Amino acid sequence: MTDSDLTALVLVGTLTPSPERSSSQLLGEQVLAELGKHGVGGTVVRLVDHDVKPGVQVDMGPGDAWPAIRQQMLDADILVLSTPIWMGQPSSVIKRALERLDGELSEKDDEGRLLTYGKVAAVAVVGNEDGAHHVSAELFQALNDVGFSLAAGAVTYWVGEAMSGVDYQDLDETPETVASTTATLAANTVHLARRLKAAPYPPSGG
């Protein structure tokens, strides 16, 4: 099996619609670029550009954009959530995506496994306030709850000076520590995704 067998989906939780610039979009794209160095193809979806209905079902009816996004997730091996920090929390847009992922708890394969089993998740966080570790902890737990696996070092983040107006997208260059952390995230995530694709989790007894 080669790295090119893998694909990734990056869900961006910025509150800013396209075509405006977004720091979380930028970091998400950088994660995808690093995954690409391992032969992984992928797509970036800015969630706020789509009418994702509130709810905890896989399909909330007419006009709901989630089923199409969900199909992209099911077709991918790797899911990346990229979010800004708002009031020390993941964005409301990313939280809505997590609520919709809750619907996966009712979806199982012929051997009783969630359809998300064998898929690997990673997280990217940006903000100019404290809270990157808190945000990643919330997302890690939620992603694991709905069946995703996480590799070592499954988060990359940038947090600027508190109460300042400098955004990640305004930096002249990517800080070396962020770049190296993103590279590690990509390498470990691809490593785990390849292992799980080659050796799936055992059938579930539930």
UniProtKB/TrEMBL annotation:
Domain of life of the organism encoding this protein: Bacteria
Pfam families: FMN_red (PF03358)
Molecular function terms from GO: oxidoreductase activity
SUPFAM superfamilies attached to this UniProt entry: Flavoproteins (SSF52218)
Domain NADPH-dependent FMN reductase-like: 9-147
UniProt name for this protein: Multimeric flavodoxin WrbA
Organism: Pedococcus cremeus
